[in-house]
Write a structure and sequence with these properties.
alpha/beta, TIM Barrel, Rossmann fold, 6-stranded mixed β-sheet, 5-stranded parallel β-sheet, 23 helices, 31% helix
Length: 751
């Protein structure tokens, strides 16, 4: 029997081998057959540009495969050397971190996530790609899909928040935007950071992560798989070690899951010098050993560590690395170049590029409008409800700070083209819609200036309303920008306090790269807009929102904690072994020498209770929405059925303003073989509802929506049993709600 099986396998292999090979693969084979080992290694080495030098030119003549940070005429110069002066004429790929726009800057990705609008993300990525291509770039290190639940980590600005489903939707949209839908890819996306980077201990960048396999698969890996399903041509390794093994040399991640399980045939690239960093992490003794570990993990390209050019040839000669593995890596690189059409058209630099087109600016403004989240409003907004013309004081460190407004990771922005809130309100003043008082002088978020506080109090007395633009400078978020205290830097809180003392109403707009813990500032304000760093057109966007030309529609992509002591705090937590306290007794309410159990035995923080400042998915607008009861097409879902359930809900605009509702579908598996979260986001929509009208929203629920990673039957934690992704029979609850903390559920049973 065994011999028959072996014979069958051999016959199948022969049949497969006889199949006609894809034309691109044949071309790749032809190139590989001509390449020396040195040329193969050169393809696997990413050179850092930024200047024209003889040394770089020589590396390219010797077959260097890609270059980082070379743009414009410089990129064109080096490409001509690659095509016309290298032995085989293999074109280079020019790469850059084009994260949320190239020249026209869109809101930071976290702000884009707040739109709950994948079309916004896709359009922003498309425009960014079209602008970047004119500068010779064909590869962007974006999107970042790390699920981030710790706002102390600065790189939350670069991703799509705390939820796996939302990050999956937005990441896939970004890939489609960058790469396009044609047979030849517009610009290669690179989904990052693989994997678990956002779970770094203490929110400190580059730190260790320890993630159980089931949590890894359930929470952190799905956005990467979604991006691959959307066609992403490349993936970037993470800086962190995952369960003791640095991501760049992690065979379980990069081979077992990425290559073998997901069948990814694109490029796996290191992050900047991450191979070299393995020495710092104590996983390798030197650069040569780190190089060997990365080859064992089939990492295709070494970015800036120089391990591959220095040690790969030696490792092959010593028999420690197979040239076949190198061939496989080069094959992936060449495949991406063919998919980009570089062999047919290696040159894309344009001497007279079209940047900041009317289309691009309009899209950037729409994105900034949709990304702003209205957290609080006592009726002061919109200002169009107030008599005209009103006197408005525009102030705060972010009121006229184009550099800061654009946010982190903006290498190619143009501050001169950035329109700030101050500029936008000046235009309104020219039109006679407001009387404007400006805060003069240069200000920054970390400034301490008692004289400025006194000036603001004096100016506030002359105004009908104060528009205070607070936040963080761009340098305070992004890579290596972890914070332990999430307050408004400098003396911003003191400024707000001084303005409040005048009795004048305050509209507080926060422009930041992360959630901040600013309870007292929110309490002092009459209205609060959380706008993130909104890019080139944030000024007009905020003016439209404040004046009422546009109604806010953003929703929080991360839970906003009351204080840092609640971190990490995310909506889809699991229920503790003892119930959450409904009316917890806080620290100052506890009697002196109280009996140990007199204040109850439930789960909460003594300082804050058990609720966040604002839950995931939260956001107000200039009207009110009434959500009806959730109705289900059936209360029984048969696992064997090809049909799912339909959940529906009527939403009525009960106010006087047309606005966008963002209904969110949440599901809970009530009882599982492993404990399950209290809710999980499974869908969302943006629905325009005119004042006084009702719209019915529907969501399809399939068995796949109920599945989760758990142990295979008969396996136990700590065993060698396999994990399985499936749904378990039992009761499920369904919400269609305005956020993760509200709504009434309907129930059904999976059989």
């Amino acid at each position: 029997m065994k011999s028959r099986i072996i014979l069958l396998i051999a016959m199948v292999a022969m049949v497969v081998a006889c199949q006609p090979k894809d034309p691109v693969e044949r071309q790749i084979d032809g190139l590989l057959s001509q390449m020396t080992l040195e040329e193969k290694i050169a393809q696997m080495t990413q050179v850092c540009g930024g200047k024209i030098s003889d040394d770089i030119a020589e590396q390219i003549r010797n077959g260097a495969g890609s270059m980082l940070n070379s743009v414009g005429a410089e990129a064109d110069y080096y490409q001509r050397i690659a095509v016309e002066e290298s032995r085989l004429g293999i074109p280079m790929i020019f790469a850059r971190d084009v994260i949320h726009g190239f020249r026209t800057i869109f809101p930071i990705p976290l702000g884009q996530a707040a739109t709950f609008d994948p079309a916004i993300v896709e359009e922003g990525a498309r425009i960014a790609a079209e602008e970047a291509i004119q500068a010779g770039l064909r590869w962007t290190f974006s999107p970042m899909v790390d699920v981030a639940r710790d706002p102390r980590w600065g790189r939350v600005a670069e991703g799509y928040g705390e939820d796996t489903y939302l990050a999956s939707c937005m990441g896939a949209a970004a890939v489609r935007g960058y790469q396009g839908k044609d047979s030849v890819v517009r610009m290669a996306a690179c989904v990052k950071h693989f994997a678990g980077y956002a779970a770094s201990e203490g929110g400190r960048d580059y730190n260790s992560t320890w993630i159980p396999e089931i949590q890894l698969r359930e929470t952190y890996l799905p956005p990467f798989q979604a991006a691959i399903d959307a066609g992403s041509l490349s993936i970037m390794c993470a800086f962190n070690d995952l369960n003791g093994v640095p991501a760049s040399g992690n065979k379980h991640l990069n081979v077992d899951i990425l290559r073998d399980e997901w069948q990814f045939d694109g490029v796996l690239v290191s992050d900047w010098a991450s191979l070299q960093n393995m020495n710092n992490q104590g996983n390798s003794a030197d650069l040569k050993e780190a190089t060997k570990l990365c080859m064992d993990a089939q990492m295709d390209i070494d970015m800036e560590s120089k391990g591959y050019p220095r040690h790969l040839k030696e490792l092959v000669e010593e028999g420690k690395v197979s040239e076949k593995v190198i061939d496989d890596c080069v094959r992936n690189i060449l495949r991406m170049k063919f998919r980009l059409g570089l062999f047919d058209n290696p040159y894309c630099y344009t001497e007279n590029p079209e940047y900041f087109t009317a289309e691009a600016l309009a899209a950037a403004q729409k994105a900034a409008e949709e990304s702003a989240v209205l957290l609080k409003n006592n009726g002061i907004l919109p200002l169009s409800h107030t008599r005209y013309p009103i006197t408005v004081l525009v102030c705060g460190p972010m009121a006229n700070a184009p550099h800061e407004q654009n946010g982190t990771w903006c290498f190619d922005k143009d501050d001169a083209m950035t329109i700030t809130p101050m500029m936008a309100f000046r235009e309104l003043a020219k039109e006679g819609k407001i009387r404007l008082i400006e805060q003069k002088g240069e200000h920054w978020s970390r400034e301490f200036n008692k004289e400025n506080i006194a000036t603001l109090a004096r100016l506030a007395k002359q105004a009908d309303v104060v528009l205070y633009f607070a936040g963080e400078e761009s340098i305070l978020s992004g890579e290596a920008r972890s914070r332990a205290v999430l307050n408004l830097p400098g003396d911003q809180s003191e400024q707000i306090k001084a303005i409040k003392a005048t009795g004048k109403p305050i509209v507080l707009t926060v422009m930041a790269g992360r959630p901040l813990c600013i309870r007292e500032d929110i309490d002092r304000a009459d209205a609060v807009l959380y706008a993130f760093h909104g890019g080139t057109m944030q000024g007009p966007a905020l003016a439209n929102l404040i004046m009422g030309k546009v109604a806010p529609s953003g929703r929080l992509p991360m839970t906003f904690p009351m204080g840092e002591g609640q971190i990490p705090f995310y909506y889809n937590y699991k229920t503790p072994s003892r119930k959450m306290a409904k009316s917890p007794k806080l620290i100052n309410d506890i009697p002196i020498r109280a009996y140990q159990f007199s204040v109850g035995e439930s789960s909460y923080w003594l300082e804050y209770g058990n609720k966040p400042e604002y839950p995931f998915g939260y956001g107000l607008t200039y009207t009110t929405f009434e959500y009806g009861a959730v109705t289900l097409s059936d209360t029984l879902l048969l696992g064997s059925s090809s049909h799912g359930l339909i959940a529906s809900c009527d939403i009525t605009n009960t106010g006087k303003c047309d606005a966008v509702a963002v209904p969110q579908l949440y599901i809970r598996d009530v009882v599982g073989s492993l404990t399950r979260p209290i809710r999980e986001l499974k869908g969302f929509e943006r629905v325009e509802i005119p004042a006084g009208e009702t719209r019915t929203v529907t969501f399809d629920i399939s068995e796949k929506d109920l599945a989760y990673w758990h142990l295979a039957e008969g396996a136990s934690l700590g065993s060698e049993g396999e994990y399985t992704f499936s749904a378990e029979p039992g009761e499920f609850h369904v919400w269609i709600a305005p956020n993760s903390a509200e709504g009434q559920f309907a129930a059904f049973v999976l059989q």
